């Protein structure tokens, strides 16, 4: 029989945490893991290359090297608008949560919600992780996690990358914007061509044109300009890495 479970993909750079998340999802009746990624970049490439594994939900860690959860969310929202993205992180302070929602995130959960003992204390429901996922997957109501330090409401009205792009760089076309976001996420030229469904020659032209237009000399220069123009956002801009204790 075909599985009737809803598919979940997740991005998490720490192996121990990947195992805990896999175990937590596998213990539910309603969900199964379709993609396990080690970074935002890895997640996006797996989603592109495995269309049959495309999930209903993505659990997105925030603090990851190179392409972190915030930048990965920005990119996933234009590549896969049908997939709901859940911030899933130890970064539960207001500005991080608020920036995630500003960029189109659908819900935000503390990683501590997969600890059944702690979750039971907060919710009196040891299955709250599965129940929260189901509510997010099947409704437009989202889910407010009581285990967040801050729901980020006072930060949600900050300007999104879409608004900042319109304000600061309307001289760039959408393909150039996509190139700059993927470049900042650590994709090489071949991977950018794959994600954008263009030839490598075309991607090379985008690169040379942008280096000239933005008066940059290197790919790193392009990342710095992209940050200054609001084309990309990184978690490290707002918050240093947290220490998370699951037990």
Describe the structure.
With 247 residues, the chain is α/β, with parallel strands linked by helices. The chain has two domains: 6-155, Rossmann fold (3-Layer(aba) Sandwich); 170-229, Arc Repressor Mutant, subunit A. The protein is 46% helix and 11% strand. The chain is built from eleven helices and five strands, in the order βαβαβαβαβααααααα. It has helices at 15-26, 40-49, 69-79, 94-102, 116-123, 128-138, 161-168, 174-184, 189-196, 200-213, 219-229; strands spanning 6-11, 31-37, 57-60, 84-89, 107-110. The protein has a five-stranded parallel β-sheet, sandwiched between helices. Strand 3, helix 3 (69-79) and strand 4 (84-89) form a beta-alpha-beta unit. Helix 2 packs parallel to helix 3, helix 8 crosses helix 11 (219-229) and helix 9 packs across helix 10 (200-213). The longest helix is centred in the last third of the chain and has 14 residues, at 200-213. It is globular. The N and C termini lie far apart (37 Å).
């Amino acid at each position: 029989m075909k599985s009737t479970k809803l598919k979940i993909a997740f991005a998490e750079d720490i192996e121990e945490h990947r195992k805990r998340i896999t175990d937590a999802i596998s213990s539910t009746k309603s969900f199964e893991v379709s993609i396990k990624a080690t970074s935002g970049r890895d997640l996006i490439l797996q989603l592109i290359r495995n269309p049959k594994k495309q999930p209903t939900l993505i659990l997105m860690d925030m603090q990851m090297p190179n392409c972190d959860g915030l930048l990965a969310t920005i990119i996933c929202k234009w590549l896969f608008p049908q997939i709901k993205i859940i911030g899933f992180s130890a970064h539960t302070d207001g500005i991080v949560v608020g920036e995630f929602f500003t960029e189109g995130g659908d819900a935000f959960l503390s990683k501590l919600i997969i600890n059944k003992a702690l979750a039971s204390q907060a919710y009196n429901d040891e299955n709250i992780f599965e129940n929260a996922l189901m509510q997010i997957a099947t409704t437009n109501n989202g889910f407010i996690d009581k285990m967040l330090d801050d729901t980020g409401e006072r930060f949600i009205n900050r300007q999104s990358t879409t608004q900042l792009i319109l304000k600061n760089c309307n001289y760039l076309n959408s393909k150039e914007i996509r190139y700059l976001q993927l470049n900042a996420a650590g994709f090489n030229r071949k991977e950018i061509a794959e994600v954008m469904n263009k030839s490598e020659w075309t991607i090379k032209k985008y690169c040379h044109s942008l280096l000239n237009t933005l008066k940059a000399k290197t790919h790193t220069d392009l990342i710095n300009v992209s940050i200054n123009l609001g084309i990309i956002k990184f978690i490290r801009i707002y918050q240093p890495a947290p220490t998370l204790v699951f037990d």
